[in-house]
Design goal:
Largest sheet: 5 strands, parallel
Number of strands: 5
Strand content: 5-15%
Radius of gyration: 21 Å
CATH architecture of the largest domain: Orthogonal Bundle
Number of domains: 2
Length: about 400
């Protein structure tokens, strides 16, 4: 694999000098470029291939938000990371649909290195020539679901109230009904009837509601009729279960709300690549499904044979273009191949990987072909030995 190229952008030369020193040990793996402003950064990108850009937010002239929005439009394949301080909350809202990941400034050296390595691994997947060919064959990619985008826009307003969020959901009666159906399901264990979007938002929180709305929107806006060999309804049911399982697993491992919420979001849309392939290149996708069932092979393996990529690659690519958080993109992309995930630690990718394995352990008859295997070696490297029994019991409680 050729070296990845990372571009750092900051208007303070001493910051760039510090980064050069900090990252010197990575020079054998990564090629670094440095720019003192947005215009210079764009010029560098016209002259050489850049895989990851890390930009400061506050810069004179073109600030980080404007720069990364331009990068998104001109070079959508580049992973976009924003360095931001606590005082930049307003800036974060401006870039919520543009940035793949935010990093605190100043950033811990080890954290920065880990994020960069993960970004390079993800970028390798997103730049796969076979994937680009498949994505091109899909025609126009679906845009971010409308109601979800409205929610994100509303939440950028610091004065946004729960009533405002409920009103947005309520504008789409089908969306409102589906969210209330899900909230009242056993997966949330609320043991009371929730009769309004506002009540649901109050009990579950904005991040969970956003994830539900995103999932509902994805399945309603990427339309596809069922086939005798593949059911969209079954895929939706599976996705809701994985979201609940992944959130439960994450909550048992960490108090970090962001990790827990991202695990839930990733679980809800972890198989969006299947939906996209089924709706756009159905004949070839059904060929992969039927081969998996006939020969008891994994669907990922059969997709690879047919497309030279799989639904994880396609889903991660789409969600990357939509600008969802980096850990969500990573979970979708790597949940069937943790061995390619460069950081051995608990993450949404681990939560979704384990949730998927446990789901098919509890419901083996629902597997399309051979069920996914648990990557015990990765869990061991991540210091998560012996967790499966506990996680399975938690998921069983949710399922029951």
């Amino acid at each position: 694999m050729a070296k990845k190229s990372i571009l750092f952008v900051d208007d303070e030369p001493n910051i760039l000098s510090g980064l050069k020193r900090m990252l010197r040990a990575m020079r054998d793996e990564v090629e670094f470029s440095f720019a003192e402003g947005g215009r210079e950064a764009l010029e560098i990108m016209e002259e050489k291939e850049i895989h990851v850009i890390v930009s400061d937010m506050r810069m004179p002239g073109m600030d980080g938000a404007a720069l990364l929005k331009t990068v998104q439009e001109k070079h959508p394949q580049i992973i976009r990371i924003m360095l931001t301080g606590q005082a930049d909350d307003e800036s974060v809202w401006r870039t919520v649909g543009v940035v793949h990941q935010f990093l605190a400034k100043p950033s811990d050296p080890n954290t920065l290195k880990e994020v960069l390595l993960r970004a390079c691994a993800l970028q390798e997947s997103m730049r796969n020539s076979n994937l680009k060919a498949i994505v091109s064959s899909l025609g126009s990619l679906p845009s971010l679901p409308t109601v979800y985008k409205k929610l994100c826009d509303a939440l950028k307003d610091p004065d946004c109230a729960i009533a405002d969020v409920a009103k947005i959901i309520g504008q789409d009666m089908a969306m409102s009904a589906k969210v209330l159906q899900l909230v009242n399901s056993a997966f949330f264990g609320l043991f009371k009837t929730i009769d309004s979007p506002a009540h649901a938002v109050n009990l579950l929180g904005l991040d969970t509601i956003k994830a539900l709305v995103l999932g509902v929107g994805v399945f309603s806006e990427i339309t596809a009729e069922n086939h005798k060999s593949f059911s969209v309804a079954t895929l939706w049911s599976h996705s809701v279960a994985i979201a609940a399982f992944a959130k439960k697993i994450a909550a048992s491992e960490t108090d970090n709300k962001e990790v827990i919420d991202n695990s839930f979001i990733a679980g809800m849309i972890h198989d969006i690549g299947k939906l996209l392939l089924f709706s756009s290149v159905q004949t070839q996708f059904i060929e992969a499904v039927e081969t998996a069932v006939k020969h008891n092979m994994s669907l990922v393996e059969c997709e690879q044979d047919v497309f030279s990529v799989n639904h994880c690659d396609v889903g991660g690519y789409l969600i990357g273009l939509w600008g969802l958080p980096g850990p969500v993109i990573e979970a979708i992309t790597f949940h069937h191949r943790l061995e390619s995930y460069p950081s051995a630690s608990f993450s949404p990718a681990v939560a979704v990987h384990a949730a998927d394995f446990i789901y098919y352990t509890l419901h083996p008859q629902k597997s399309v072909g051979a069920p996914p295997e648990l990557n015990e070696n990765y869990l061991s490297l991540a210091g998560l030995d012996g967790r499966l029994e506990k996680w399975t019991e938690l998921c069983r409680e949710v399922a029951e």
